[in-house]
Amino acid sequence: MEYNVEDISPVKKQIKVEVPAEEVHAALAATTALYRKDADIKGFRKGKVPSSVIEGKFKKQIYNEATTELINLHINQIISELKVNPLSGLDVDAGQMTKGEDFNYSISFEVAPKFELPDYEGILIEEEDVEVNPEEVQAVIDRVRNNLAELELVEDERPPQDGEAVVIDFEAFKDGKPVEGVKVDNFQMTLGEGSALASFEDLVKKLVPGQTDQAEITLPEDFLNQELAGQDVLMKITLHSIKKKILPDVDDELAQKAGGFESIEKMKEIIEQSYINSRKQLNKSSAQKNTLDQLKGKVEFDLPESLVEGRIEQKISELRNKMEKKGKSFESLGKSREELQEMFRSEAEDLVKSQLFLLAVADREELTVQQPEIDAYIQNLAKSSGQQFEQLKSFYEQNNLMFALKDSILADKAMERIYEKAEVRIIPPVGAKGEAEEQQK
C-alpha cells in the first residue's frame, strides 16, 4: 500500500491510497477463510467447503467486509505514521475491491491548525473580589420561606390577589367548539408569578369562589399548538377556592425545617458562604474568559468547518430544548434553519477558536486526561441531570462523543494552567468602585 498526502487547506488533509492487486487478493482470501471456517453448507463438512463455493455464496458480504477491514487497517497505519489527530469523522471515498485489480481510494479529514502561541506565563489577570450582597442573601431566605409556606383557605367571599394560590377549572373554545388539550380541572396556581398570561390571570382576579366567567384571550405567538398561536379563544374559568400563603417566621424552627441547621444564624452563615463560593467561582470564570479573549485575539488561524457546524447544530438543539421546556413551539421563532445557522455562526466560531487555542496550550504543557477523570465528569453530569451514570456513559460512547468530552476536559485544564501561571490581581467589585467614585464627587 502506498499513499500520498495533500493539504486541501491548513486544516484539511486528503490522502490518496493505492493498493496493489496482490494486497487486494490477500485481503479477500483472509475474509473468505473466516467465512469458510464457520460455513455450514449441505454436502460439505464444516471447515472443508471449497473457497470457490464460499465466495460464490457469500460474495457480496465477503467483498464488503474485506474492503472495510482493509481500509480501517490502512487508516490506523496512516494516522499513526503521520502523527495527526483527526478532529472529526473521516470522509472515505471508496468503491469496492475487485479481485485481480489494483484498488484506489481516498480519505479526508480535518486537523487542528498550526499557529504560534502567544506568551501567557505571567500574564496579568484582574479578578473581582467577592462582596456579600445582603439583598441576594435575603432573597434566598425569602425563597426558603416561600417554599415552606403553608396554604390557608380564604373564607371571605372576595376575588383573589397576587401572591395567593387559586384552584380553578378552565377550558378554551374556538368557534364554539372546545379546543383540544386546553382543558384542566382543579388546577392550582399562584397569581402574580408570571406563570400564566396576564389576561388569563386578570379574568381569574374578577371571580369569587364558586363563580364562573369567560372572556376572549389572545394566545401567544409561540403557543405550542401552532394552529392556535396568536389566535383569539374564548376562555371559560371557574374559581373553586383561594388560599393565602402563611410564611413561617425567620427563626430557628425555619432553619431546622429548611435543612437541619442548628440555628437561623447558622443557616444565614451557610447561605452567605455558599454565596461567596459561587460568586468567587463566577468571578474567576469571568476573569479567565476575559484573559482567553485577550490571548486568542493575538492569533489568527483557519477554523475546521466541521467543528463550527457541530457547534451551530448544538446551539440550535439547545434552543429547541429550552423552548420546549417552556411549553413553546420551536417553529414560533419564525426562522428557517439557514437563518438559525447564520444567527449562531459567530458564537460557534468563537467557541471553536477558544477550544483550539486551549488544546494547543494543553499540548505545550503536556496535559493529559485519564479515564477516571472522564468517568468523574460524566458522574457529576448524571447526578445534576437526574440520569443514570451507565446510561449516560453509554450514550456518549455510542454517539462518538467521548473524544469531544475528553477535549473539553483538556481545554478546562489548559485554562487552569494559564490561570496558575498568571499574575492574578484581586480588584474591588465593579459596583463597589462605582460607589466609591460617587462618594468622592
Short précis:
The protein is of the alpha+beta class and 441 residues long. It contains twelve helices and eleven strands.
Mean of residue pLDDT values? 89
CATH topological fold name of the largest domain: Trigger factor, domain 2
SSE sequence, one letter per element: EEHHEEEHEEEHEEHHHHHHHEH
**Largest sheet descriptor:** 5 strands, antiparallel
- Structurally, how many domains make up the residues? 3
- Tally of separate helices: 12
Record field, number of beta strands: 11
Shape: extended
Distance N terminus to C terminus? Answer: 79 Å
Which range does the strand content fall in?
15-25%
Structure description:
With 441 residues, the chain is of the alpha+beta class. It folds into 3 domains: 2-110, 2-Layer Sandwich (Alpha-Beta Plaits); 150-246, Chitinase A, domain 3; 279-440, Orthogonal Bundle (Trigger factor, domain 2), CATH 1.10.3120. It has 12 helices and 11 strands. Strands 6, 7, 8, 9 and 10 form a 5-stranded antiparallel β-sheet that branches. Strands 1-2-4-3 form a 4-stranded antiparallel β-sheet. The longest helix has 33 residues, at 264-296.
